[in-house]
Specification:
- By secondary structure, this protein is an all-alpha fold.
- Helices cover 68% and strands 0% of the residues.
- Helix 1 crosses helix 2, helix 5 packs parallel to helix 8 and helix 6 packs antiparallel against helix 8.
- The longest helix has 23 residues.
- The chain starts with 12 loop residues before the first helix and ends with a helix.
């Protein structure tokens, strides 16, 4: 995907939009158009010409809102990313992890934009002369937060620490979620509830069975 050189978005844009509803409307029209193009044609379909044509918004206005195509794409991905609901409950750590992993597996399977976002962040505009590092970094932080927040709530809780001892939470999330993303990206198979149960059990089996005080061991929590 190519784009012309352009200045970064004016930092006063947000304030301008609040002061002038017309700017907010034009931004929404641009994002609506970009969302439609992304959903129907993929990342390569989201060009400045296509977005301005579909939205009927002038190119100059587009660059007033978004300093680059990368910035526009990042904002579009943020708009389309589905919300991740954290399963509630205070049951055993194993049950909570299985419920959360199953929820995330369903999301990965049913929301193609989730995979498109990850692929774009991994390969998309990195190294492109027109890359907008701030936009990419912001989107990456949003995706990471979306994935890891529910896991952190479980894995950093007292029950998990009592059951598993000290461990690298980030690597634990990779252990649990990584196979699901890989299976979806490669098309090897659809991950179901039984697969998520196996992934959680494999994860628990790789960590020490320790008891802190009167806390439960991993075997007792299964």
């Amino acid at each position: 995907m190519t784009e012309p050189d352009s200045a970064a978005a004016d930092p006063r844009t947000v304030a301008d939009e609040q002061a002038d509803p017309r700017l907010a409307r034009s931004r929404n029209r641009l994002l609506d158009a970009a969302s439609h193009l992304l959903s129907t044609g993929g990342v390569e379909a989201v060009t400045v010409d296509a977005v301005t044509r579909v939205s009927k918004v002038a190119r100059a206005t587009l660059y007033r809102h978004f300093g680059s195509t990368t910035q526009l794409l990042a904002a579009t991905f943020e708009r389309l990313l589905p919300h991740v609901d954290t399963p509630t409950g205070d049951g055993p750590v194993r049950d909570q992890l299985i419920a959360l992993l199953t929820t995330q597996a369903d999301l990965v399977e049913q929301a193609p934009v989730q995979m498109t976002t990850l692929a774009w962040l991994a390969m998309g505009s990195i190294g492109d002369d027109h890359t907008d590092p701030a936009a990419v970094t912001s989107l990456r932080a949003r995706v990471i937060e979306q994935y890891r927040q529910p896991f952190d709530r479980i894995l950093t809780g007292p029950d998990a620490r009592a059951m598993l001892g000290e461990f690298d939470t980030t690597f634990a999330i990779i252990e649990l979620l990584g196979p699901i993303v890989f299976a979806r990206l490669t098309g090897l198979r659809t991950i179901d509830h039984d697969d998520c149960t196996q992934l959680v059990d494999n994860f628990l089996a790789t960590h020490p069975r320790v008891a802190v005080g009167n806390g439960p061991t991993a075997d007792q929590c299964q």
